[in-house]
Design brief:
Length: about 500
């Protein structure tokens, strides 16, 4: 059954088997439970009969089926019947922003095959000619001046409401090509955060070619978390991430890493993007460890914006066969994570960039997974000239430009965007996993480029997210059995529930 296709009556249990575990999720509460094989089989039959009902079954019908399949009442009580179709209460304030991405530059010294930056055109051939100056003095599109970054931070401060933990994410292009603005922004935030009554968390994704020990030391001392992109062995990496000249970049990055003092190396995050050309996640994970990383993140290449550059489709998981392979690889990786977690190597502090561990952490504390994509609701992105967009993936698409840092957010355009994306809850609320996913499974930008509607879920993304969620729950089940006393230490409670948090 399709993840998003709802039955006549939504059954009370979503049942699945993963990693040798029999598991059930309440489609009402989102609570999940380990089940014995016999209970699993009985619930499966009970669930199937209930899902065939055209309307909510009567208590008498439920009792009859419960007795028929000999299901103990305390088990039935774990999975209440839906009273009505679930609704999701979204944040009412359109101005409660906590995360901002600063696209410091569209320039880059690499030409990664899956990147949508496209030398500043952002996979949009009309980007440059569609742009208009947002200030009296026209600024260069490719590089963000310090004044723009500071004004962007001011907008974040004016829009964060009562939130005290704020995230500033430095992005590009290659952000270190505009190190001056990066450092000035961090200093501006640190200088004023006490006066503003907030705490800043800084994130940086870099290709590593310019990350010398000196620069890394300066950034870490200022509290900037650094993720270095390196896609595997030399052969794999150089195919994915060559210099503009076509020469591979692996040796340059490895040289920089080898020169890092141990104290710095332990704080860097090794980040690998996986493509169909080499999708062995467990091997790629091992490669990052061999390079000296303790903090590790892996994720598949995401086909955002690439409907406009079809020649690059081969670098993304697009066919059913590729998706099946990727799911099998994620299962192998989950087993590797379990082994390393049990051995004491992995915990939340070493994996806070890691999407799979973040998913487990949120499930462990029974948070909403994220409550849907925060683009335009809790976060926004600023381009080099000061244009405001819901997120970096929408850069350069004029219909999603929500204002600029000089004149502020355009309330009408923001209102239209929010009204549009709220429709995703209508599309998703009948899904059996809505009680946990809350529309998180499909990126708004990917929805737009595949379905021409940011609110209409892209089915392949939903299927992949379902696989990851099942694996995360099964992994939690195993860890809860084997090391129950270490779970609090393992995950580290994160009340912020976003990328930045008080642990760092």
């Amino acid at each position: 059954m399709s993840v998003n296709k709802a039955p006549t009556f939504k059954p009370p249990v979503y049942l699945f088997k993963k990693l040798g575990r029999y598991l059930g999720i309440s489609t009402v509460s989102g609570d999940f439970y380990d089940l014995s094989p016999s209970t699993y089989a009985a619930l499966q039959q009970w669930n199937n009969e209930l899902s065939g009902c055209k309307a909510r079954p009567s208590p008498r019908t439920v009792r009859r089926l419960t007795q028929k399949y000999r299901i103990p009442q305390h088990i039935v009580d774990l999975f209440p019947l839906p009273v009505h179709t679930l609704h999701f209460k979204e944040r009412s304030s359109a101005r409660c922003f906590t995360d901002i991405t600063l696209n410091l530059t569209s320039r880059c010294n690499l030409r990664c095959n899956y990147c949508w930056n496209d030398q500043g055109t952002y996979s949009n051939s009309t980007f440059q000619k569609d742009r208009t100056s947002v200030s009296a003095g026209c600024v260069k599109d490719s590089e963000m001046p310090i004044e723009v970054a500071r004004k962007a931070v001011d907008i974040l401060i004016g829009s964060c409401g009562d939130d005290k933990d704020l995230v500033v994410d430095f992005y590009g292009g290659e952000p270190l090509l505009n190190l001056k603005t990066l450092l000035a922004t961090v200093d501006y935030c640190r200088k004023n955060q006490k006066r503003w009554g907030v705490n800043f968390h800084f994130l940086l994704a870099t290709n590593g070619t310019l990350l010398t020990p000196k620069i890394a030391g300066i950034l870490l001392k200022k509290g900037v978390q650094i993720a270095v992109s390196i896609d595997g062995s030399k052969k794999v990496h150089d195919r994915n991430r060559p210099f503009t000249s076509g020469k591979g970049s692996f040796n340059t990055i490895r040289k920089n890493l080898k020169e890092m003092p141990e104290g710095i190396m332990k704080r860097l995050v090794g980040r690998t993007t996986v493509t169909p050309f080499y999708s062995d996640l467990s091997s790629l994970y091992g490669n990052l460890r061999k390079l000296g990383f303790e903090r590790i993140e892996l994720f598949e290449s995401e086909d955002a914006c690439h409907r406009l550059t079809p020649q690059r489709e081969r670098f993304f998981f697009s066919t059913a066969r590729q998706y099946r392979l990727l799911c099998r690889q994620y299962e192998r990786l989950a087993k590797r994570y379990i082994t390393d977690t049990l051995s004491g190597f992995l915990d939340y502090r070493k994996t806070f960039f890691n999407r799979f561990f973040k998913l487990m952490q949120r499930l462990y504390y029974h948070h909403e997974v994220t409550g849907g994509c925060p683009a335009g609701v809790g976060q926004f992105a600023i381009d080099a000239s000061g244009g405001i967009y819901p997120c970096t993936s929408f850069l350069g698409v004029e219909k999603f430009r929500l204002g600029n840092i000089y004149n502020g957010l355009e309330e009408k355009k923001l209102g239209v965007f929010l009204k549009t994306i709220r429709k995703r809850f209508e599309h998703c609320r009948g899904c059996l996993l809505f009680s946990l996913c809350r529309t998180t499974g499909s990126c708004l930008n990917i929805n737009y480029y595949f379905n021409r509607d940011p609110a209409l879920p892209y089915q392949k993304s939903c299927e992949l997210f379902r696989e990851k969620m099942e694996l995360a729950i099964a992994t939690l089940s195993i860890l809860s059995e084997k090391i129950p006393e270490r779970l609090e230490e393992l995950f580290g409670f994160d009340p912020v529930g976003r990328r930045g948090n008080k642990l760092y």
